[in-house]
Amino acid sequence: MAVSALITAAYIAFFPRPPQPGASVIPVPVGAKDADPFPLEDPFAYKPERAEEMADSAATGLAHPLYAYSPGGAIASAERTARWRPQIEDAARQAGVDADRLEGLVFLESAGRPDAMTSYGIKGAVGLSQILAETGTNLLGMRVDTGASAKLTRQIRRSLRGGRHRLARRLQAERRLADERFDPHKSLQATARYLTLAREHFGREDFAFVSYHMGIGNLEGVLRAYSGRSDGLIADVVAQAQLDWTRVYFDSTPRSHRRAQRLLSSFGDDSSNYFWKVEAAQEVMRLWREDPERLARLARLQTNKASSEEVLHPPETTPRFQTAQELRTAWVREELLPVPNDPAGTGLRPDQQMGELAPRIHQPKALYRGLRPEALALALYLGAQVRAIERGGSLTMTSTVRDQHYQDRLTRSNHEATHGYSLHTTGWAFDVLRAYRSNRQAQAFQWHLDRLSVLGVIAWVREPAAIHVTVAEDARALLPLLERIEDRES
Question: Would you say the pTM of this structure is higher than 0.85?
Fold first, then answer.
């Protein structure tokens, strides 16, 4: 299909009428010659009617770490977590929360291991639901003797190294008495007490789970910043302003509710994404019970690369460009479009070295300076958003589409290049140089990378010199941005 027809069809489907006054729109890059005569509504901005879809996307978009880093893998972690289902259901009834969600919390916190411990040791987070020593003692009424617990832990490790498993089991029983965080039942009951307290404080279950990692005080600060209310009980503020986590999370951006967004960004421990990871873990547990074949497939795709890029474009179903001739055919059919060299108008600057190996294989560099229309539209979206926040500057694109012959040559000459299946050979991936005009530009770019990955629109990974971005087909909602290129070229 010709790209002009593709753009027109997408425009009618996603933008049937001009955005209403006050709607969030995609900014025109600072430095463009003319104002946009027809502002485009941002399909990734929060709107109440999108809330459920955005929440579902977030649970999917943040699933990769669960597959990549769960001890023994996601399937083994799900098996361990499922063993505690009766105790989890009992704790959920006590707290008045959803048992599946609490099970997701256990998966995320400990991967079902009652002796799990962070690198901070006994005084850090410990046990099935990862409770801090101070929190357990001062807030949850648990017996936590850190001195005895640390001593017993050292003895347990020596016993296991020496193969004295019976002694290790006896010492583990002693430790459960000295430090109740190691007791699965008491750990879950304490978590239930926390969730009850937090749910009553905020008046909502989702905020109770958010606060489990963020902390009640930190979350209250975010909610007051978002609502602009410093008076009254926070539960009343939540009820009166009709707040929920989906709204607060997705509506706090560098362009709206900036104070809340700055607070969320200030937490260096990924607290703002915690709730979505709980939801992602809940989905892993559902698949483990209901669709183990799909879980096994996802586990393979999620761990093949350092991001979820193969989930977006599985190797067995995604067309690749094997030769330069196949690339030429794609250009003729407008399945690939050129990256415009218009930094002021797009916020993107093509690196002059892009396609640098082309002369060695007797091809023009321009053959390797394009993307699928959806991927180019997503790049334009990033360029526009970041340049509007930075008030100038541009992102430098270093790599776009390649054929397999080019990829193989690059692999032989550069050990950093991907061996085997590279998303560059599909036209769905591009690289952005990790050299920024300012910290403000870097932070704006990072924020949009994180937000789009949460929505499942991209997968990205940090490489030594560049950010590697893979674009999902869902980016078709941005195809109308390509009309801006046509307008500026006409």
Answer: yes
